[in-house]
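pipeline/complex-builder :: batch 7 item 3
reading input block
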Amino acid sequence: MRLSRRSLLASAAAVGGTAALAARPARAQQATLKVGVLTDMSGPYQDLAGPGSIAATQMAIAEFTAANPGLRVEVVSADHQNRADVAAGTARQWIDRDGVDLIIDLSNSAVALAVSGIGREKNKAVVATGAATSDLSGRACNANTIHWVYDTYMLAKSTGGAMVKAGGDSWFFLTADYAFGHALERDVSEFVRNSGGRVVGSVRTPFPGTTDFSSFLIQAQASRAKVLGLANAGTDTINCIKQAKEFGISRSMKVAGLLVFLSDVHALGLDVCQGLVLSESFYWDLNDRTRAFSSRYSPRMQGKRPSMVQAGNYSCVLHYLKAAKEMGYAQAKADGAATIAMMKKIQADDDCFGAGAIREDGRKIHPAYLFEVKAPSESKGAYDYYKVLGTTPGDEAFRPIAAGGCSLVRS
Amino acid sequence: MMGFSRPQNIAFWVMVAAIMIAPAILYPVFLMKVMCFALFACAFNLLIGYVGLGSFGHAAFFGMGAYITAHTAKVWGLTPELAILAGGTVAAGLGLVFGWLAIRRQGIYFAMITLALAQMNYFLCTQWEFTGGEDGIQGVPRGYLFGIISLKSDLAMYGVVAVIFVAGFLLIHRIVHSPFGQVLKAIRENEPRATSLGYRVDDYKLMVFVLSAAIAGIAGGLKSLVFGIATLTDVNFPMSGEVILMALLGGMGTIFGPVVGAAIVIAMQNYLAPFGAWVTVTQGVVFVVCVLAFRRGLVGELAARRRLSL
């Protein structure tokens, strides 16, 4: 980890240094934009986002500025420590003091909501790629924020709906006993029922602090449901997956994780995760374009493959720069809301998510995929983890625009 | 003035001058955060430094103050001063309950009871509707002071935070140096003797516990207005730990120690943020060095070396 960060910094400095040297004699009056990556560098999301998010951002900038030498883009980054107050303080300082024009990543819902509000107040652009809460394009939406990559609605819809279509028609839920867990269970249940499946039961696990899920897992097993839905997140989910494996539950039931990412599967290993079902909007091995992106990304990150959040940062920065070029860099620097409006107007297309669009409420639209984790024998090498079980097209994957309660939507 | 010793008097005016000059050099939002936490640390220090009661659950009061202030300002539309007052009042009420239970025990048992109660409070906050669970209360308006002066600009807010901080600081100093404070120190030094002299020790302890909780609640309320958010971070255990670190680093039982400690800890969090994981590592190293090398804290050590009372 230490080595990787150091070499990352070194390469960043090298790239920045050579860019500065090359640019200086060419043109004195060069447009400059500044991107702030506010991510988790030390907590539970550092593998999902973290250093990889910064690398992906630098990749997008390097590719764009290579084709558009009239622009210089600087990157600053900071650790939000999963604390909204730290994030809010950093974001304010970036905007007030350092002239940051775009803040991205925000891999924590409370952090994303706080920074989104600051972006609105100061009229800068905010793109949340790492946050889950669908409120960002619903009740808490604003004209300066776009929610990229995924949200809780998409995960529930893809995992709930597509799973039933793939044969998993009876569900049992293990739900973390707090608002987030309840909401997740409610949303997924609705999609399961709408697709013709049924929910045979659920059990609430105390939150926070449950580490032993054995009694709940046995209850789940006794229900004879085909699918065990994990309506929880983070370490709760990790513990459930491990213990489900130990109890042999993953042999009789399909375990569906609602907030599980490639980095979690990588950390747990295929032996523990095999058969696990989950949803993401990006996987490095989906098609030629995602593979091409990943093979450009890997050398920057010591062979690691990008997660969907990291891919999202690449995708949104590229799109932001395209929009800024379209409207003129000076205008983009001056008016965050106008830049976001331009991003909504122009067609989105990149290697990671393919062609897509951004809705009026700030929701980026692209397909969602239901994956099953491969058995160790099926995997052909490092990071060959998923097989596709189902695809939800973009226009169905996200919450209908009228149902979110976003004030930007004219009814 | 105010019962300051000469060096305290000088230090106080240096601090006031620093508060006035600093926003010209440093980022005002950062300074406001420092003052909020300094007030919180002073409130904590009132208990541990002057009565010898080490509370491990002070985040409960800080966080509750933040939640109540945020809720009343955002949903009820109270003006900022009333919202902060509401936060302080609820925190004092909570302090009354916690204190009533906790002061029956001493030392580690006292610490454990406060910790347990604070964790219960944290658990409630994750469940309660009005706290917004994981997402917290977002977009809290700074509003208009007394319904007239807009606090939207950072400098206006800075003025309010500075005035409340200095007032809270002086209040704590006054409490410590009043006859009431003398009794508190007597309890710290020898509780049975204070009892034998005819003081109702439990009443004194409860009283100071409530005062400390109220000031912590006001600090939390201020913070929620400065940043416009109140989240679970404010009520969670690491916050209780952080305030202990601040008091320890600066010097427990000195009036300026917690202020210095808060400034150092917040500066570390702020200026080390670009280095990612190193924040927590550095905090740990600083803590260990402090405990090993200068056990009385920075200000405490300085005071002891120079034989001053700070």
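note: The CA atoms of residues 94 and 362 of chain A lie 23 Å apart.
queue -> next item
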